Amino acid sequence: MDFILRIAGTLVELYSWALIIYILMSWFPGARESSIGSVLARICEPFLEPFRRIIPPLGMIDISPLVAILVLNMAARGIIALQYYF
Known about the structure:
This protein is an all-alpha fold and about 90 residues long.
């Protein structure tokens, strides 16, 4: 059980980094249209879309990815808590 929870924690951490990279790619023109950008879009957009529906952009600033990363980190902490429980 410990092995499965470690893998889940590692996957959540890797996904969190993928989200951060995808968000930072919006600062560079044409970065999201690259091959890496399109792969990250297919991975990250399904997770970010519900947050974007709930939290609209404030002018030019979109804070929904920050909320998504916070939720993902809370899920990771939940996995860590499960690891200590078992």
